[in-house]
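Retro notes, structure queue

What went well: the backlog is down to a handful. What didn't: a couple of records were mislabeled last round, so from now on we paste the full input next to the output in the thread. Example, using Replication protein A 14 kDa subunit-like from Sinocyclocheilus grahami:
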Amino acid sequence: MTGVYESPKPRINASMLAQYIGRPVSFVGRLEKVHPSGKALTLSDGEGKSASVELNDPLDEELSGIVEVIGMVSNKGTLMAVSYAPYREDTISFGSHYYIDSELCCCVTACTGM
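Corresponding output:
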């Protein structure tokens, strides 16, 4: 997954995953579920639609609230995470008016590596 950090990535929502297969993206969503293994997450976007995220390594921290994931979209429409960054909910407004954005966004510089 080299090249994920080399250029700006589109920020997408769950309904756009199929359009970005094999490409690096940014996905911001509310954490809905963590798999017991800690290696998979379910995030819901600003429209309430779900996206599956697979991690290379199990989570080493408790995660909740809003999370940005940077990664590649697999052939199955799953986001293969390279990094993630939790956001404090009291510092951002999260909803479809905030989330859906056709502009390119850059990776958050404070991403937590996996």
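Agreed that this is the format going forward. Reviewer comment attached to the example: The chain has one helix and eight strands.
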